[in-house]
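Troubleshooting log. The previous structure file for this entry was overwritten by mistake, so regenerating from the original sequence record. Sequence copied from the archived sheet and checked twice against the printout by T.R.
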Amino acid sequence: MGFFGKKGSSGFSSSSTAEEVTEGIDGNGLTAIVTGSSSGIGTETARVLALRGVHVVMAVRNVDSGNKVREEILKEIPSAKVEVMELDLSSMSSVREFASKYNSSGFPLNILINNAGIMASPYMLSKDNIELQFATNYLSHFLLTNLLLDNMKNTARESNREGRIVNLSSSAHRHPFPGGIRFDSINDEAGYGSIKAYGQSKLATLLHANELARRFKEEGQNITANSLHPGGIHTNLFRYHTILSGFASTVGRFMFKTVPQGAATTCYVALHPQVNGVSGKYFEDCNISKSSAYGQDADLAKKLWEFSLPLTSP
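Regenerated output below.
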């Protein structure tokens, strides 16, 4: 990947790693939640944030796997502050339980990284009977964010430090269903396509960040919200597509990012001072980029917000 790495205006590129883009940054006094941090770029994100002094809360479905990652981080960084808490994004009751426990813990919240996701799965429904990719990649993160917002607002106000919400989207947001979001047939199995459904969920994730940014600006909150494409990385996201996985393992290894490179944009947007005050933007390769026409549609973002509220109500 390195030979494609032309630096952008930030001074970083597709070949930059998470450690490189956070070098010299002091994260002491900050607390971050990273969803899906027991594998892939989520693990590297948690590790590098901890390396920079951030108190990291790993929100993971498999607590045993999360604890193993935590032990590895502590072995490398004995001074790291890392917690593991259970969060199953296929279940809204699990999201509510996680948020309740977190808000009762006394932990502040400076940074929320909505990282977890699944990619191009066969048609399945979540535990709440919502198409699984839409539920896991977007809707449960929408609920989680809303349940943690008061904590984030209080933390930003009391610490006088900018809060940051980082949503992991994908370049696949450019290839959703016609119209962007299938509001009238979100659970329609007959019209389901795994790649289009993934694109829809990642478009929703991007629009979520944009609408949060608009609302924070309107309210005068010291919190930003941005989305990003981490780049193509060969992780277990490919488990539902053997052809894509095989390509990534052979020819793709010359084109795909490494995991440290894949976590770079997330860590850059979460921690770097260059991003202070930047909100409602879409990042690629640690630089601001341009999303699709749907990704820039403010009315679509508002419609998605209103659509999501009743779906996530108790």
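The two ends are 45 Å apart (CA to CA). Archived copy saved in two places this time.
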